[in-house]
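agent: user wants the structure for FAD dependent oxidoreductase domain-containing protein from Minwuia thermotolerans. delegating to structure tool.
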Amino acid sequence: MFLEVHQCLRQPALPPSPCAGSTPSIPPAGTEPALSARRRARLRPAEDLKFEPYWWRERDRSPPPEPDLPERVDVAIVGGGYTGLSAALTLARAGASVVVFDAEDPGDGASSRNGGMFGDRLKPGYGGLARRFGEARAVAMLDEASASVDFIERLVIDNEIACDFARMGRFYPAVTRAHYESMAASLEAEKAARPVQAEMVPADEQSQFIGSRFYAGGRLHHDTGGLHPAKFHDGLLAAARGAGALIAGRTAVLGLEETDSAMVLETSLGFITAETVLICTNGYTGPLTPEHQARVVPVTSAIVATDELDPDLVRRLIPGGRMIADSFNLLNYYRPSPDGRRILLGSRPGVGVGGGRKLADHLGRRLGEIFPELDGVSLTHCWWGKVAFSFDGLPKIGLEGRIGHAMCYAGSGVAMSNWMGHKLAQKALGDLAGRSAFDDVEFPERFFYGGRPWFLGPAMAWYGFRDSLSRLRHGR
Ligand SMILES: Cc1cc2nc3c(=O)[nH]c(=O)nc-3n(C[C@H](O)[C@H](O)[C@H](O)COP(=O)(O)OP(=O)(O)OC[C@H]3O[C@@H](n4cnc5c(N)ncnc54)[C@H](O)[C@@H]3O)c2cc1C
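agent: tool returned. relaying tokens verbatim.
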């Protein structure tokens, strides 16, 4: 039974459908526009552009019921995204009393706004990890990243979460030949150390994976995939609630104090005492825990969704419906919507881009650069949220005394946040299974940083400049 569901999940399903209204004419297959046309191509924000996630279209936005807070719980969790809910589910299923607080509606952080692309990569890559930690620990860390993908699949299956989960794979196209060579070298090194379900795809074969000649080949990962992030969050929330966790949405935790025997939390609903507090605030970490705020760098990531397209066009541009993330410093990540009728593209907005319609316009140009066929298509949704980075690019987890934390997934948190939340819960339960290869890794701080990332502007400008050089050198 499990195998059948598993096989089925691996098949991307983009349904055939009649042509939708605002679709531009489709050029014949293989027609490649001139470079100037590629540079001019852009998608434009619709008149009624919506500044909220495409994923929220069917979401119930009515205020949640105000919960009756007990005086005391075993574990209080701050943050109702994937990390907090995954922790709550594990704790509640083990019989602990749990309350999850979120200052907004749970999920309003990154967990219902993301691209829905779950992966098994770690920011430093195998080479960087092996240099820093040695080969065995690097392998253990990457094995955990792979385990996080299996874990999220189990969450979906065991809790019957209808969220368009599929392991259709991810293609990482290289912007330049040099990026391609570097990807190939790092894959070869990693394959020598551990099995990796991935292969290099040279430029003359990439049309099986992407309907664009913008790239110089790429790296294909088979085991990863995509889901509908808000539906997944809703399902996880229902599972945690069903297991007995109390969910207090629109309830900020304002203060934390440790007494001899417990933690006292001041919330916007009143005071509550907990044996243990888990901080699961990721990119929204604030002054409640200055020790985390001073170590977490929040970075804005933004996404646009196109108007409905002809599903045949979407299939031709992104054959196999895979997730895609390219090798720009300010990377483009994009995918078809689960119904195969739209393309969603996200990126880290660079310096001087602006917000609102200007941001949508900027992302529309990026999409037009990759797929000139989409010139003139409208963008219907544009939204953004915060991703958390640590200074060494690694996820962070720890439980010291009565306070635990799990955060900093560097834009790869769809799978990792669930895994880390689960591990953190096991730690809080005193379960040795909560051990992680990421235990006891330093959570670095910098003397020049206290939680306000003033340096992001210059850093983004530098990355944007290097990306422009890549474009120029390679005739893009
Ligand atoms: C636009 C965008 C696109 C992304 N795309 C991808 C992707 O395709 N693939 C991928 O792997 N990752 C992606 N990510 C990252 C991924 O979404 C996150 O890593 C993941 O959702 C983190 O989950 P979390 O539960 O740790 O944090 P969040 O979901 O951000 O939740 C943290 C919560 O803490 C709450 N909070 C903070 N302080 C308090 C307080 N004092 N009291 C109460 N509540 C508080 C906030 O309200 C917030 O809801 C993306 C992120 C963004 C923003």
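agent: one observation worth passing along. The chain is about 30% helix and 20% strand.
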